[in-house]
Structure formats: structure tokens, C-alpha cells
Write a sequence for this structure.
């Protein structure tokens, strides 16, 4: 997967960087898979492959559990498994989860440039904040918003609108960085530009929903922003 030559990152340069979490800043797939399969086990169901769980990530915990249980699960089973998943994941959220290589250094570079940074994820906000604090990344962000921070999750643009309003940043100076089509659609719905990362959980979805620019490592983003500035 290569950069989209039709829509390069053009001036004016971004002042506000909004990051997705899972698959963009952190590699959380093993802990998510373990907790999903623990939730399935609580209902007497066998485990499903980690790769299958990863393909269900991106639209929030309720959607993740519904997909993991399948179409024949009752609402009672879904709610029971969701509660079990959230409790299990809150305990095991950092068993294997780590920042992707170069994330800390890249965020330090953006901070030196004076850029405002925020996280916008469909993951529950409390767990998101706990993970970022546990990985010593939370201090880089003036705001961390999750899937239950607003009435609507991504790809609804309310999160981006809120962050732009909080910082007084117009769309042309705002950039969303994520690993999935959900992130690209969120950026489009808000009228901002997007950077897709190819190393994350759902990079295959970027083929059908291409971002404005693609990078293969977060370490490529500081140079990209320097050129834009």
C-alpha cells in the first residue's frame, strides 16, 4: 500500500492532530482478543481466532461483542458478555498492549513543534485514559475522548467538531490520523484531512476508503508535517 498521489498533504499546515488509539498509537490486539474470548467462555462458547477478533475492532465495545457472539446471540447474552468483557479488559488492558515503535518519539516531536494533540477513539473513555496513562503517553494530549464521550461514535464527526471548537482550530488546520476506514470517514464527515497508517489493526479497509495520505510508520509523520509547515 503506497501514498495516495492524488491528494497530497498540502498547506496550510495542521495545528491540531487527532489520533485514533487502537491500531494507531497502541498495539492492543492481543489483550482485546484475550478479553473477547474470555467473554465468550463466560457463555460456554469456544474461542475464535485472534485475527477474527481484530477484524471486529473499530466501532466500539458493544459492536465488538455483538460481532464476536454472532447473529444468533440474544440481547441478554450480548449484554452479559459485554459486561464481562469490560470488567476483564479493564484488568488485563496492559498485559500485552504496547505503543507501536516510534510513537513516543513522534509525539515528542509534535510537542516540540507546538502542535495540539488529542485522542478520539470508539473505545470506552475510562479504559482509554487508563491505557494511555499506564503507557506514559497521556500527558501529550489535551483531550482524550472515547466512544461514550459523545452521543455518537465515529464516523460521526461530533468528536472532531468538539475538538476543533475547544482549540479554535478550523478544519483546514486539523488532521486525523487512524488505521481504518472508520477514521477516514470520520475525517471526511468533519471536512478535515486524514492520514492512514498501514501498520495497524484494520489497514485493509483503507484500500476501499483511502485517506488523503498513507504512512507505513508513525516515524514518517513528523517529517511529513515539517514539509507541510
Amino acid at each position: 500500500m503506497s501514498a495516495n498521489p492524488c491528494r497530497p498533504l498540502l498547506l496550510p499546515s495542521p495545528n491540531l492532530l487527532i489520533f485514533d488509539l487502537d491500531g494507531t498509537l497502541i498495539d492492543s490486539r492481543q489483550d482485546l482478543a484475550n478479553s473477547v474470548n474470555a467473554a465468550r467462555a463466560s457463555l460456554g462458547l469456544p474461542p475464535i481466532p485472534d485475527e477474527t477478533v481484530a477484524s471486529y475492532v473499530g466501532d466500539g465495545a458493544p459492536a465488538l461483542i455483538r460481532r464476536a457472539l454472532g447473529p444468533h446471540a440474544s440481547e441478554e447474552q450480548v449484554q452479559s458478555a459485554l459486561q464481562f468483557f469490560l470488567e476483564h479488559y479493564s484488568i488485563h488492558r496492559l498485559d500485552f498492549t504496547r505503543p507501536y515503535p516510534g510513537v513516543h518519539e513522534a509525539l515528542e516531536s509534535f510537542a516540540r513543534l507546538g502542535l495540539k494533540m488529542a485522542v478520539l477513539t470508539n473505545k470506552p473513555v475510562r479504559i482509554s485514559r487508563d491505557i494511555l496513562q499506564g503507557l506514559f503517553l497521556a500527558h501529550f494530549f489535551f483531550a482524550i475522548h472515547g466512544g461514550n464521550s459523545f452521543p455518537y461514535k465515529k464516523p460521526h464527526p461530533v468528536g472532531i467538531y468538539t475538538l476543533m471548537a475547544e482549540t479554535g482550530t478550523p478544519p483546514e488546520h486539523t488532521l486525523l490520523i487512524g488505521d481504518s476506514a472508520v477514521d477516514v470517514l470520520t475525517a471526511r464527515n468533519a471536512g478535515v484531512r486524514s492520514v492512514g497508517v498501514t501498520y495497524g489493526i484494520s489497514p485493509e479497509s483503507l484500500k476501499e476508503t483511502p485517506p488523503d495520505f498513507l504512512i507505513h510508520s508513525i516515524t514518517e509523520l513528523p517529517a511529513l508535517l515539517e514539509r507541510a509547515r
Q: What stands out?
A: The first helix runs from residue 29 to 42. The longest strand covers residues 116-120. Confidence is low (pLDDT under 50) at residues 1-7.
